[in-house]
Specification:
Elements: H1 4-11, H2 17-49, H3 54-99, H4 113-155, H5 157-185, H6 199-202, H7 228-234, H8 236-240, H9 269-292, H10 294-299, H11 303-355, H12 361-404, E1 430-437, E2 447-454, E3 459-463, H13 470-477, E4 485-490, E5 493-494, H14 501-504, E6 507-510, H15 521-525, H16 537-546, H17 549-553, H18 573-586, E7 591-595, H19 603-614, E8 626-631, H20 634-637, E9 642-647, E10 650-655, H21 664-667, H22 692-696
Parallel strand pairs: 3-8, 3-9, 6-7, 7-8
Antiparallel strand pairs: 1-2, 1-4, 4-5, 9-10
The chain binds adenosine-5'-triphosphate.
Length: 699
């Protein structure tokens, strides 16, 4: 009965099941308290005759107040539980995007982080609104309807049964009339009249709504002799959006007849109104025309004729207006009539029961009041369900994605350390195997089968021209980019956003444009460590000193405790890069990926960082992490012990600076320059120029 999306939305409530159980109990209690109104009104009616009403008044007052208070507590509990649902949904969505389980910027949620954030927040809001505006009121309506029916059944089971049996007629007839009017309208509702009483359609039941938007103009009551009929009968499946509806009269005419005869609906108020307006406009036009030609009319003594013409038009318009009024009245009457019949029926049967002494007059009053409220409650219940479906639609994508992106916590011990006995089967360090990276909307991959390996304590500089795929390679090496092919392994274990968190903690990266958070400087440097691991201030300052951050950090108003502002806006680009470097060094990772790490630094700090990376005893020498340095700066790359040239998405050469056949520092005029790339970068398709495993796997 409930769609998967609604079920998914309701499943969000599960973690607060205790609160919802409490809400349910309170709702039932409050609804029963509300029933005290009709119940004691009837009771008082009985007591009036005995001139003793005050005794019956007190329970009504107490129960009424109790019900109101319970309702207040219930609504507050539900609101708090719903707020938790929204927070969990938002948090879950953000976490899923961060983990990479749900497409982030550039994916189906939006192109930019702002769009993704807006979408996530908007969808969470929509889900919250759906639950708050539809589920809770629907539950209230259900509780009220149940309580009212229970009271009716306890007083007079027969009347309760009659109410239940007539209920469908009472609720569905007005809807059916409104539906037919809307459907038949055609021009506004734009829905094909699958259930219209024209011969064609009735002969192909069952035709299941909902229908597709109507491809035809105008009202769609087609007279049986219309030239449109064969076309419509042939295209009925299309019209009704239901492939199960058979075509009736092959062979099909190829298209809509050029001048189809479409007869307006003779009874629909909307059509009548439109025609009446048209007729009135026509009559007015005739009158205006007559008045404009007054002299001519008089000159020819044609006054009576013109008046008769105007009168004839007006009388046509009047007829249509009468028809419209009658149709409107009939519609209103048809909507209200079942209610009237129901009330009269209840009064009749109830009166007999009173006469027979089965119920008292006061109980009949109670039953009639209960009946009225019961009908309203069920009506409200039916109103809220479509509302819920509508509201769910807006949050459906996020719910679906979250459903798919269920976080499965890694099992076993969180340790990337190679289990004993398996050391031989694992290659220590970083290994990129035939890595392909693509972006949506790009015909060619950005990286085409890049393979390289990097042992712990080794530094490799990848030199590429602007747009040559450096950042893509860095992201892939960090396991942050979904690969179109190949694999990235750290110590023999695939590295991806879903990898074991312990493995991910062995990795550190400094992106080209590092992100700082709206926290203190020290909190930004210790990002990812958390304070719980007992990070010492001395460790932070030591890391900061290695990359020149300490020099300016001590001059800040609050030193390392200075807030850096939203997205680190109070720091310069060079300072932000220094913080990102200190953050990475603090981790003492097994793999360090640096994307243009010195580009924004001032010359002094740049020299210091280069020494830190490439100098004797630096990161690129000895027991440190495996360092992958991607850069476009020739001068920086040539200092590295090993250099790989990345061109056209492929590794062109890899070796020590002296081993390279076409070193860029010989072709580039100034070795400080950015490498512009050289030679043909096109993919030859045969793998030539691809250093592949032979060169790339140089380690
Ligand atoms: N999200 C993306 N969507 C589509 N294309 C992208 C995306 N990111 C990068 N690209 C394209 O991929 C190619 C490589 O981009 P990448 O950022 O990896 O190069 P780069 O060498 O780091 O560039 P730069 O020298 O400017 O830092 C570029 O042509 C770029 O336009």
């Amino acid at each position: 009965m409930l769609s998967p999306a609604i079920r998914r939305l309701l499943a969000l409530l599960r973690p607060e099941c205790r609160q919802w159980a409490l809400v349910g109990v309170l709702m039932v209690a409050s609804a029963l308290g509300e029933v005290a109104g009709p119940y004691f009104t009837g009771h008082i009616t009985d007591q009036v005759t005995q001139e003793d009403t005050s005794a019956a008044m007190w329970p009504l007052v107490v129960l009424g107040l109790g019900s109101a208070l319970t309702e207040l507590v219930c609504d507050c509990t539900a609101a708090v539980a719903l707020t938790r649902v929204r927070a969990r949904l938002q948090c879950g969505a953000v976490a899923a995007v961060l983990r990479g389980n749900v497409p982030g910027p550039g994916g189906s949620l939006g192109d930019t982080p702002g769009a993704v954030a807006a979408r996530v927040t908007g969808d969470a809001e929509a889900a919250h609104a759906a639950l708050a505006d539809a589920v809770v009121p629907a539950l209230w309506a259900l509780a009220r309807a149940g309580a009212l029916l229970a009271v009716m059944a306890s007083l007079a089971p027969l009347l309760a049964l009659v109410t239940l049996l007539v209920l469908p007629l009472l609720l569905l007839l007005p809807r059916a009339i409104a539906g037919i009017q809307q459907v038949v309208r055609g021009t506004q509702g734009l829905r094909v009249p699958c259930q219209l009483p024209w011969p064609l359609v009735t002969s192909v039941s069952p035709v299941s709504p909902p229908c597709t938007p109507c491809p035809l103009p105008g009202p769609l009551v087609i007279s049986p002799d219309s030239s449109l009929l064969p076309w419509a009968s042939c295209h009925l499946p299309l019209l009704c959006g239901d492939s199960s509806v058979p075509s009736l009269s092959p062979p099909c005419p190829p298209s809509v007849p050029s001048n189809p005869v479409v007869t307006p609906c003779p009874v629909c108020p909307q059509d009548l109104a439109r025609r009446a307006r048209a007729a009135l406009a026509d009559a007015t036009a005739v009158a205006v025309e007559s008045l404009r030609a007054l002299r001519t009319v008089r000159a020819f003594g044609h006054e009576a004729g013109m008046t008769a013409r105007v009168q004839q038009r007006l009388s046509h318009s009047h007829q249509l207006e009468c028809g419209e009024a009658l149709a409107y009245g009939a519609g209103r009457w048809a909507s209200g009539f079942p209610t009237l019949v129901m009330k009269l029926g209840l009064l009749l049967v109830g009166g007999r029961l009173v006469a027979a002494g089965t119920i008292t007059p006061g109980e009949l009053v109670t039953i009639l009041m209960c009946h009225l409220n019961f009908t309203r409650a069920v009506d409200a219940l039916l109103l809220y369900l479509p509302d819920l479906a509508k509201a769910v639609g807006s949050s459906e994508t996020l719910l679906e994605l979250l459903d798919k992106a269920k976080w499965v916590a890694p099992v076993g011990t969180l340790s990337p350390v190679t289990p004993r006995g398996h050391e031989a089967s694992r290659t220590p360090g970083l290994c990129l195997k035939d890595v392909y990276v693509t972006y949506p909307g790009r015909s060619e991959p950005v990286l085409k089968g890049v393979s390289l390996s990097l042992a712990p304590g080794e530094l490799l500089a990848v030199l590429a021209p602007p747009g040559g795929g450096k950042s893509s390679l860095a992201a892939a090496a960090l396991g942050l980019r979904p690969l179109a092919g190949g694999a990235v392994l750290l110590d023999g274990t695939p590295l991806s956003p879903r990898a074991d968190p312990a493995l991910r903690r062995q990795v550190a990266g400094v992106p080209q444009s590092p992100s700082l958070l709206s926290r203190s400087l020290s909190a930004n440097i210790t990002l990812g460590w958390g304070h719980r691991e007992g990070m010492q201030v001395t460790q932070v300052t030591a890391a900061a000193q290695r990359v020149g951050v300490h020099t300016w950090a001590t001059r800040l108003p609050h030193g390392y405790d200075t807030e850096v502002g939203p997205r680190g806006m109070q720091l310069s680009g060079g300072q932000a890069q220094g913080v990102a470097l200190a953050r990475a060094l603090l981790r003492t990772p097994r793999l360090l990926v640096l994307d243009e790490p010195t580009r924004a630094l001032d010359p002094v700090t740049r020299c210091q960082v280069e020494q830190e990376l490439l100098g004797p005893g630096g990161l690129g020498a000895g027991e440190g992490p495996a360092v992958l340095l991607v850069t476009g700066q020739v001068a920086l790359a040539r200092q590295a012990p090993r250099v790989a040239l990345l061109e056209g998405g492929r590794l062109r050469e890899l070796g020590s600076p002296g081993e390279l056949a076409t070193p860029p520092w010989e072709t580039a005029g100034d070795s400080e320059d950015t490498w512009e790339g050289g030679g043909d970068t096109e993919d030859t398709g045969d793998g030539e120029g691809d250093t592949g495993d032979s060169k790339g796997g140089g380690h």
